[in-house]
């Protein structure tokens, strides 16, 4: 749990560091960088090459959690590894061999970092016929925090139709985003289930029979679920569906997706809050539920079922639809509203929800109570509970909680809680054949790239070259040589696309490596990826992306049927 | 400027330049003749007015059949035929394909004279370039085979190539093959000429008539339902090209015709400054994946790219048809290749890039023949983009097949019945054709296995064997182990393992063979086709006695090697039949016989509810225990004496093995080695395998694969159906007189032909050749199809070959003919004729001396006698 100024989400000044980096000349005195060397992992230096600026800056790629095995500074360390690195001469050329100035990650090393978390899922085809409106999705994440605070989830609803995809941006730790990524889809799926199915599941639990599976997860091996809390989470979920069963009046069988999404979000946040208040006899779990409640997470979730696309958003992640115009060009349609200070309606809402005399303090320096960037979030009970409740829970809580400066800290001007809600804003969109894909991403992406660029880059990647304006000769004088030149040019342009099978990886490559001309600059990419953990967060946020690809044939067919 | 022009311009269909080339005269004589209603009845209805349909109509009418109706959904010659590149090339890898192309060439050559319709036939010749030595070897092999069937061709130097075609860059070539009599022709005009000739012979042609489905009653074609009414008919021919698959499926009882279309691109240019001569040879640069021919003074060039675009997977899709656009980016690698081959073309102006879907099949061979499930339903389709080359010959063979009941050549390799239902999945076809299309120009090396559409049918032991290092090949969708790679050994990657020389698995198979000879090996042979025939009375015996040449009225428990012959005495199937009881028989046939044998049996079995034929292939796992120690393993597992006294050769007994009961144990191995076949109900397979491996340990047991089996059986002169034997070879021609009982007291199919042959003598004889001056390490390995020379005269081709680890020599099997030196007529082949010759085998142009044998080498048996173990080998059927 670390917080610092700058692009961070919560601006509580606990410790601060700001080091200049990224000027080729690097004027900073070398002493300044010495502390960094300590963070280098010996094995890292051997294995993957590191970004080295001058002779004295050597840092480990930030995606590896810190190892206990630290590298101790040694005057001769530079010569220690140089002769062994055969890639060195290869990338730098002979003329630099005698005076090593810079170490960059080689393209394969860059790729291995970028691809470490990539995941692709293709909806299986059945005998050549794909009945789902979703072709599949690509997802990936690039950490800036250590450990990463973003989470992602994807699952197919088994008892109802449709697919759920979501990105979750955690702050003040990853506990909340982790919990939401594990639990939210179950709450949504349960909210969508018809009464009979709920009854069937409840009866099965009651009589000890096998349960109907609700979700088919599509997870990257790094996307873990916590085993310890599973039982606790299940009980909360069961209470929820029991209430749903009891509430059912039997009159309407139609389940409104929008309502279901809103209910699921609110219910989960409520459960998170309750679990923290009640506590757990198991000390590990007790600490866990408290960490979940005291950290926070935004969520942006899409539910796709045939041509019906719902996006439920809480916080400042964003869902963007990629639309291909008739002329083949790409345009972006935003399907969610950011809940932050840039959204006037949100500011307005907050001001209305609290007494007039708080109008100035409730949003300060573009932050909620001057602290929190997103205006809606899961967890963050500091912005939800009364001061009494907070104090009571912390005092009765475990020591670790008491020792933590952040949890004990009560936001200033905290008069009329709650200030924060997890209620999502739900957008509905009816898919059309020209809607080719949906990008769900945390603000780490949207901060660095314009939405139009995001959609263009993904669109061109997904469609390969075919829709990059097909060439036709028809009646014009074109020679074979001219055509050949043109095609080679086009291929060179596209070759970078083919480096990435995964659209999300491709997008991250652009987000991190784009130069001012919008092209991927390998040197820049290499530098960004070799930043040490402490610095990475200064230059970028965690980035998590899911690119969902739609099946235009199925979407078109669905449209025609109706 | 240039870029912008290109991108904004949309292609216009039927630009004028295009029409000039492909004369759209279709229907001129069609429409006026037959604008009336369809006839109510016909003998034959042919679907498809492309080159295949018109060729079948042409040949059927020539052979005297009347009442033939040809239906075309659009206009004549308007599908793939119209867009075909028009190259007629005889340089094919299969002899049957060479013969079809050769016949087509001769037919098209005289077609203009016959019909008066211009076909644009020009004898340009073609040149096949080799950029690598391996490619040159491949060309040399084709060259040897072309020469022996009378098609002139020669291997030439790069310098000669440059002389033949001035535009070619020859710096990177190692050689080439020149086939001077190849031609170019307008395929649409050929189809129209064939249609015109057929129409003059009485064939009625209707265009713009779609067939909705074929009507079938009791497994027999009764008519077709079209959008313009019904036609009753006895025969139906599906020549629907890329729609043949869909048409087959539209039946109530679907006919599976496994083929799939891919987009195919070629380029047309304006004439060169000095227009290319109309007789400039066609160039095939397979290493560059392109072909180039002259076209109106310019060039036409296309190719078979590595990343094909399959199309129409979900059936006919109007959207896709309309979207068939020129895809220049897709064509880029081929264009680069073209400009590398002919750098001077840079300044040549483009007319257009044509996109014409071509049809491909799962094994790169075309599909012809009668449906196994519907009598009278014939198919000719799936030409793998060689429709023009095959059109004439394929049409002729199919017409012969329909008229006479069988074609004049062995066409098993192209027979629809080689496929089963398993190849009819759209997903399978889509994936497989993506592998097949690039393969057209890939190097064709021995022992190539398809990589896509695998692991479909497997034995229950698959995982066990795979974990022990099995490498797999596929037959009829069934995975079979080739050999087992020991844990400490690494083989080359797939691409690198392509070779015409000694393969990297040589030592592995050697040790497996050695183990078969000295100890005991297990081979999983579950893929074999297994049928059971039972009846309440004597019907089973009666029908089998009629269908098979050997005497099956043997005591219960005996196994008979026998052939299922056709009227000509040729092998329709070669199998082993065990008499399980008085009234039931167990029949074991080659793997790929599953569909063909079933269809043949069904065709000849009387309608009798008391006679039951069942396909039990999937019910049994077959383990082959080969080797002198097999007997020890089995007796230890069954507590039963297995010595020849108790268990003679060619005997079948149900017994227990380990805990499992009801295992059919047969004393035969399909190799001539001692041992047993175990037919195990699949639920016991793993148990029996584990027991066998466990007990066998002390006898030195190990796994072996089909490569070892192949070496063993060829060394012992065991011919296999489908490789050595086919529908045109009789038992007498391969020294199997002992398997024919002409006097078994009743008639059987093929008896008359065999009697006659016995009287007159045979015209060819299966012979075993042992290569003499062949260096296994350094010389090219024989494969199959190599020409055999006797005293310098061509006498036949090899059918299979393997390295014999005991003989330490290569062994080839092949047929020896006796062509008259004066007339070329086939004469009687006697044992004396065989024995008195000096033989040579031509491997890619290099002739190796060979010793001919009519019987297996006895030294192999004496070698075995030194062992004091059982001597089952002596008792094995010859």
Automatic annotation (TrEMBL), chain A:
Compartments where located: Mitochondrion
Record-annotated PPM-type phosphatase domain positions: 134-550
Gene Ontology molecular function, alphabetical: [pyruvate dehydrogenase (acetyl-transferring)]-phosphatase activity; metal ion binding
Coiled-coil region: none
Organism: Camelus ferus
SMART domains given in the database record: PP2Cc
Entry function: Mitochondrial enzyme that catalyzes the dephosphorylation and concomitant reactivation of the alpha subunit of the E1 component of the pyruvate dehydrogenase complex (PDC), thereby stimulating the conversion of pyruvate into acetyl-CoA.
PROSITE patterns, per the entry: PPM_1 (PS01032), PPM_2 (PS51746)
Protein family per UniProt: Belongs to the PP2C family.
Keywords: Acetylation, Calcium, Hydrolase, Magnesium, Metal-binding, Mitochondrion, Protein phosphatase, Pyruvate, Transit peptide
Pfam family for this entry, one: PP2C
Assembly description: Heterodimer of a catalytic (PDP1) and a regulatory (PDPR) subunit.
Cofactor(s) annotated in UniProt: Mg(2+); Mn(2+)
Enzyme Commission number(s) from the entry: 3.1.3.43
Catalytic activity: O-phospho-L-seryl-[pyruvate dehydrogenase E1 alpha subunit] + H2O = L-seryl-[pyruvate dehydrogenase E1 alpha subunit] + phosphate
Enzyme class: hydrolase
Protein name: [Pyruvate dehydrogenase [acetyl-transferring]]-phosphatase 1, mitochondrial
One GO cellular component, as annotated: mitochondrion
Organism phylogeny: Eukaryota, Metazoa, Chordata, Craniata, Vertebrata
From TrEMBL, chain B:
Chief location of this protein within or outside the cell: mitochondrion
Coiled coil: none
PROSITE patterns hit by this protein: RHODANESE_3
Keyword Mitochondrion among record annotations: yes
Signal peptide: none
Domain Rhodanese, chain residue ranges per copy: 44-87
Record keyword Thylakoid present: no
Gene Ontology CC: mitochondrial matrix
Location relative to the cell: Mitochondrion matrix
Keyword annotations of the record: Mitochondrion, Pyruvate, Transit peptide
Family annotation (Pfam families): DAO, FAO_M, GCV_T, GCV_T_C
Family that this chain belongs to: Belongs to the GcvT family.
Quaternary structure note: Heterodimer of a catalytic (PDP1) and a regulatory (PDPR) subunit.
Function recorded in the entry: Decreases the sensitivity of PDP1 to magnesium ions, and this inhibition is reversed by the polyamine spermine.
Protein name as it appears in the record: Pyruvate dehydrogenase phosphatase regulatory subunit, mitochondrial
